[in-house]
Amino acid sequence: MTDGVVERSRPRDRILETARDMFHKHGIKGVGVDAITEAAGTNKMTLYRHFESKDELIVECLRANAAKAGAMWDAFEAEFPGDKLAQLHAWVRKAAAMLNADGRGCDMANAAAELTEPDHPARLVIRELKEVQRQRLVTLCRDAGIGQAELLADTLSLLFEGARVSVQTVGAEGPSTQFVRMAEGLIVSFRGTAAG
Amino acid sequence: MTDGVVERSRPRDRILETARDMFHKHGIKGVGVDAITEAAGTNKMTLYRHFESKDELIVECLRANAAKAGAMWDAFEAEFPGDKLAQLHAWVRKAAAMLNADGRGCDMANAAAELTEPDHPARLVIRELKEVQRQRLVTLCRDAGIGQAELLADTLSLLFEGARVSVQTVGAEGPSTQFVRMAEGLIVSFRGTAAG
DNA sequence: TTGCATAGTTACAGACCGGTAACACCCTAG
DNA sequence: CTAGGGTGTTACCGGTCTGTAACTATGCAA
Fold first, then answer.
1. Residue A62 near residue A111 (C-beta atoms within 8 A)
2. How many domains is chain B partitioned into structurally?
3. Most buried in the list A48, A53, A182, B21, measured by CB within 10 Å?
4. Proximity of residue B41 CB to strand C below 7 A
5. Searching chain A, which residue's CA lies closest to the CA of residue B126?
6. What residues form the membrane-spanning segments (chains A, B) (predicted)?
7. Distance CA B83, CA B85 (A)
8. How far is CA B130 from CA A14, A170, B191, in A?
9. pLDDT tens digits, residue range A129-175?
10. Does the C-beta of A49 come within 7 A of strand C?
11. Residue B50 contacts strand C, CB under 7 A
12. Do B89 and B30 share a structural domain?
């Protein structure tokens, strides 16, 4: 898929999807609204009829990303209903797959790196959405019967976050190759300790 | 320290130092050369006499950062001469201190997030410099008599990298608070396995 | 005193940025 | 058939960006 996403759907959806793709590939400040609308097969006026500013478009893109991530969690539950430990391992596999998907890190983290104004609207939603994801992982670990669920969840999440930026800086052949091994080792090690 | 770094040194040094500071705080694309030269107490022509482009200035800033990081490693050796394990613990403490220093992550990682063109000159030096740092940590772990030195070094480095972006996204009260605990636990655990 | 390298000043080029105004077009609902 | 909302088109605004030209001022060294 190049930048030209011009399926026939409603302009707002095309703009949102195209912006998500282009922000991901080229960064937020690396893409202008003209380029987005052109790739989406529409024009600037239509964009500004649906989004009051580029900043609002950015926020909506981040929310759309989070929604997609939420669907991922639901897929784990659907695939291994009730088996929380299996879902945790599925999370590890999915995370590893994302590392090899492309060399770009987490869109939220990248956005946070670019948008430095402390009160930028995007910063609030990033914080909020990241907090949700953290909580989901903590809950999963706890429900999987792991003792220090918060500590394991936070460790896994830091490892994953670190692996994503590592891929972005040194490439997929760097430290991130060991991610699955690290994560699985941690889970084993935490399961060995006293469970709830 | 605000953005105005106007000590009386040679213009090139002032520009480099000011650019480093401003790139760190506001991101690379968030700072123009005009703003840099003004904060450095000089002017655009002088900048372009010393650096052939903004891209070259960026690269020089990253190299300066790496040099500062190199000095940090030398400080460990100076403080605990020959005691590699103590140096490893010093690295953990230093890393934790950097987490609480300010809410901005690693300049190299941030630059990689912003500069998405695959053949951007900065991407080469980022890769090169990150590789050097990785190797230093691996060597330190190995010389500290740890068995799976590469695995420990890579795990610690992913944890640290992840903690830095976590601070940038959810703040210093997020998962990164557990960094020292995680790192120390890992070192203990790896020392328990067969050593070199 | 002369000569030269370094640095400062002003102005500008050319491109791109986010955002808006005014107006013409279509499609569909009534 | 008609009215109106969503869409497309063109042109524009003011601002900022990197990078350069032409010229002046400064300080040091022979």
1. yes
2. 2
3. A182
4. yes
5. A169
6. none
7. 6
8. 38, 7, 25
9. 999 999 999 999 999 999 999 999 999 999 999 999 999 999 999 99
10. no
11. yes
12. no
